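Q: My labmate handed me this sequence with no annotations at all. I'd like to see what the chain might look like in three dimensions before we decide whether it's worth expressing. Could you predict it?
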Amino acid sequence: MSDLFSVKGKAAVVTGGSRGIGLMIARGLVHAGARVYISSRKAGVCDEVAAELSKNGECYSIPADLGTLEGVDHLAGRLSEREQALHILVNNAGATWGAPIETYPDEAFDKIWAVNVKAMFHLTVKCLPMLRKAAADGDPARVINIGSIDGIRVPYFENYAYSASKAAVHMLTRHMAHTLHKDNITVNAIAPGLFPSKMTNFIFEQMNVDQLGGGIPLGRVGQPDDVAGATIFLASRAGAYLTGAVIPVDGGVSTR
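A: Here is what I predict for the chain of 256 residues:
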């Protein structure tokens, strides 16, 4: 039982790992002993965050714009140069866009679909050879997609393309899980609720943390350990028998 939740020595990549929920996950994996690669569009920020996380373990920067197929190819190619086997792929990179329904732009759907859905799918496919090499009896390779409770229930904000994309992430998770079980690769999703991040800053600017927590059944907003813990569970031996699951990490908001 001592190694039930261990990810020590595993190779992991976290897209969008330089800020927000991606950074929370990357930091948790580094502290837990995984060898972590983070990717984000801004090279300087990605390098700086990787250097900071490396003070507590192994973390490396591979900047890439995953909104393009070229960026996906670049990240997968650089990973394959560094690792023969990839144990954990966390597809976290994402974008959002809010606007009233009558002025919601078509470009919002194009941008968000490219980053939130297509990049997740294409990067997983590109990483399949490395994931297959990492898969072992009783310890599958893991793909962990970051969805959202906005893909489970109608959000309070008008973010049509974002919520639709996250619902697509959840279905793609189930579909890929059904296909990849034969390769001993599990595919699960985490659907976070409200966490402090650059993406949610506008919410925290309108209301204080106590007010926001008052609208959540468990009485608070999400903290880094909440999403890092869910990721480590899915990535460790403890989560080896789960695939095709979408796990709300939202303090109970999705129960309403």
